[in-house]
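Quick note —
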Amino acid sequence: MAQLRPGYNFDEAREFLKINFQFIDSAYLDSVPAPQSFYRTYRSPDLGFDNSVDFWRSDDNEIGCLSFRGTTGSLDGWGSNFYSSMIPAKGTIKLPSGFQYNYCFAQDSLAAVHEGWTISIAYMWKQIDSLVQDFVALEYRDWE
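Predicted structure written out below.
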């Protein structure tokens, strides 16, 4: 599986910024150039607090990139911002659907994360996990 180059690389950063801006309001999308060496393979439906996740692949299929849409202009979109307390970086969240999301963003017991974003990730987790697992499995097949 390909690795990003060590250190800061302007071309890589520019491509990832272009990917990030593909979630921009459609009225402005034409003013943002599309990535030149990545293509989008997946966009999730709106989930949880009106969040969404894209999966992009490099043209050579060696690099995968997750891109998240956070806050939108909707009340749901702003909902996660108001869950602004900091919670332990390792724990469990149970969603109303019954899905239990066990997360670990840091091993340090003093580390904390934004509760709203953690809940948002919980809503997107099944899509995120599936996209990454599929990408990794494809790469392993290519190595055989």
